[in-house]
Amino acid sequence: MIPRAVKRLFHQATISDPAFRFMFQPGPPNEVVAFDCETTGLDVRRNDIITIAAVRIRDNRILTSERFEAVIRPEARMNVDAIKIHRLREMDVAAGDRIQLVIPQFLHFIGGRPLVGYYIDFDVRMVDKYLLSLKGFELPNKLIEVSKLYYERKYGDAPPGTTVDLSFAAILRDLDLPVLDQHDAFNDALTTAMMYLQLTDLRQRGVRIPRQRQTDRPQTTLA
User: How far is the C-alpha of 47 from the C-alpha of 4, rounded, in Å?
Assistant: First the structure.
């Protein structure tokens, strides 16, 4: 697999649309963007984005007034299992815009800011598959994975054999964050933004998240 840094240099040198060169410039200092997608399924090649949302974070503030939300009419049929998760039916997204219109709007919202997400690699790959065909490049932004920040704060000094739980629920519980209606793109982006701020604060202060002993409570190990 080609490293993202190498792809970034290649795409920056070969970009054909000068209107999007701003994506390769640094965003405003002390700003990042949390974002999330809901999709017709979990196969990047065959499934489509149906909702995408993002919210800007400046210093230690979540700027809910600076948000991006879009409903997208997909080409792929809706996966029944996916509908059970995000509760969006084909009729619910039938009036949405096509992805060709949404992607440029999304790029102008995020600019060159780092992107924050929970298992963000999937969301980025979903965006990249459209972006590469539409504009000839992939997202060049720095990626910040909140589950990695959480792992560092809770399990970074754990002894071998420790059971690791990186689930969304575990992070919410340990950070004492409110449980919003999940699998809603904006709610998930907003929750991820709150996770990011708390975990960044813990790291800056050198504070670790306490671990319970293995016998105290069973934990779920994620593959």
Answer: 23
